[in-house]
């Protein structure tokens, strides 16, 4: 998605062509090829290639997840700071019970909508992260997500 395209709930997900379209499929196919080679030429070496292929596939996804987790921590900090400056006092003190997933979803809400959405989230009106995002009227884009 180009950064000049308005971001919405429908298009806010990211597709990384090199990861989703190349690296992931190559590592997955590598596991399949390793298994086929093992079935055709059973040996310790071909068995070991299966282990290495699986390790590479797991490593690729774990490395991506580590980057996303680090980014989630930064988002959580940014949003807590924003909530401290935007939310009224009674709501600000209650905002500490929001889950990480709820805070991450609320980052798309503009300052004007944030208090109402936090109130509804705390009352249990939004059981899922997607419900919070769908309730946002004026989407505040996040073009920096990995």
Task: Label this structure with key terms.
about 150 residues
Overview of this structure, please?
With 146 residues, the chain is mainly alpha-helical. It has one domain (17-135). The chain has 6 helices and no strands. The protein has helices spanning 17-40, 44-86, 89-94, 100-106, 114-122, 129-135. Helix 1 (17-40) packs antiparallel against helix 2 (44-86) and helix 4 runs parallel beside helix 6 (129-135). The longest helix has 43 residues, at 44-86. The chain is elongated and about 70 Å long. The mean pLDDT is 90.
How many β-strand runs?
0
Mean pLDDT across all residues, rounded?
A: 90
Helix proportion range: 55-70%
Largest sheet: none
Beta-strand content estimate: under 5%
End-to-end CA span: 12 Å
Please give the count of helices: 6
Shape field:
elongated
What topology does this entry show?
Blueprint: H1 17-40, H2 44-86, H3 89-94, H4 100-106, H5 114-122, H6 129-135
Helix pairs in contact: 1-2, 2-4, 4-6
Task: Describe the structure concisely.
The chain is mostly helical and 146 residues long. It contains 6 helices and no strands. The radius of gyration is 21 Å and the shape is elongated.
